[in-house]
Amino acid sequence: MGIINLNDDSFSGDGTLQVEEALGLARRMVADGADIVDVGGESARTNRAAITPGEEVRRVEPFVREFLAARHGWMPRDETQVWPPVLSVNTWRPEVVRPLLEAGAELCNDMGALPTDENARIAADCGAALLLMHSVGEPKVPHTATMWDDVVGEQMAFFRARMDLAAGAGLPHEAIILDPGLDFAKQRDDNLRLLRETDKIAALGRPVLMPVSRKTVIGDVLGLPDPRTRDAGTWACIVAGIRRGVSIFRVHAVREAASVIRVVWATRQANR
Fold this sequence. Notes:
The chain has a single domain (2-269), classed as Dihydropteroate synthase-like (TIM Barrel), CATH 3.20.20. It is 43% helix and 11% strand. It is built from 10 helices and 8 strands. It has a 6-stranded parallel β-sheet with strand order 1-2-3-4-5-6, covered by helices on one side. It has a two-stranded parallel ribbon with strand order 7-8.
């Protein structure tokens, strides 16, 4: 999953407010091997003010329409790539989710932790998939002091409850992806434990997405305050994630991540 930031305050410094520039970046990501393109109009950073729902839709909806029209003229990198590439929208407010899914986006990457069933109902209405991210409280509000006695056990209970909530809203079980939410209301050791025990989340029977790219936990381990210097740590997290059942990796540098994944899978499949 390649990351497109349609904003000017991304933590990794790679955002743009120009739809054509973002579309060009998406095309390069797909050529580099992205199966999913995830576009967001608002940074998740809690030290930046929230934008209005109307502004978020204004930023992202034109990209959704142009991406869906353009992708049919692109070519897959190889026969293993998901085709056509899936379009995901990274958002959480229902008044933004609905118009973007109605415009044709196929996956809602919901960072809001599904406090109600509204986004699940919208996804069901639109025939879209829904990513459930673990966190606490409302996005754009700091939760850095949150402590967990058993972060993995809590996530197991959280995801079971949220999957039941989504099912009650009419969303098929097969339309759900799980995201442990690294760095969201987590401490350093919480994040590292989740990376070590992701197989327990995968055992719930749904694909797990790991948003490892340039995360704060990597910077903490390596002593790297600049997110743009954390790609080597990202590749290490991908290798660990593959070993523990992760299905999707959300990354900034798609070409390098795809190469890491291809080599790891080649070693796993050798002589089988």
